[in-house]
Amino acid sequence: MNLLDSYRHKGLRKKLIENLRLKGISQEEVLSAFMQVPRHFFLDPVFDEKAYEDSPMTIDQGQTISQPFTVAYQTQLLGVKSGEKILEIGTGSGFQAAILAQMGVQVYSLERHEILHEKAKNLLNSLAYKNIHLFFRDGFNGLPEHAPFDKILITCAVEEMPQHLFQQLKIEGQIIMPLGNAKGQTMVRCTKTSEQSYEKEMFDKFTFVPFVRGINLKEKKQ
What we know:
Elements: H1 7-22, H2 28-36, E1 57-58, E2 64-65, H3 68-78, E3 85-89, H4 95-102, E4 106-111, H5 114-126, E5 132-136, E6 149-154, H6 163-166, E7 169-181, E8 184-192, E9 198-206
Parallel strand pairs: 3-4, 3-6, 4-5, 6-7
Antiparallel strand pairs: 1-2, 7-8, 8-9
């Protein structure tokens, strides 16, 4: 695994951050995390030249690493505070988890694709993150044994509030999620006001892969 972070990469990250500022990302903690986490580490080397473009990239299992603006947007909506415990549904490449960890939180991240889980685990271990806890698990069920969480970040599209996850959120905690169907979703932030109720805020339109139940085991070599 080549984890070279050159001056060229750092320069490209600075340009990306300037672009994110122009698009409305204003939280300095978010922008600082983007400067410190090399996005090209989370992509196949063939995409090295495009790693800092503001666009999604293909990863294994027909999934994508979200465009930087989307990651920054969701992170900014979370209003991350150092020391919080955050549940992420959909590890993917591990980039979002690394951004959150860089901001000083305890990240608990679930991935339903075994190949993606193993790749992210190997990479994040090599980067020596001590505050990222990865699980190969059906995200629908969450992590009840580690609940309650201060915040929950869902990185796939849902059509309604996932009740299993809502139950694992602290009172006054928040869930950030793309709400809608395959035609498009609206990013929403839901603040839990009681064990049965929440307040919902609606933001911009996005397109995410759907929230799929179950797990996807990797094929065993013969």
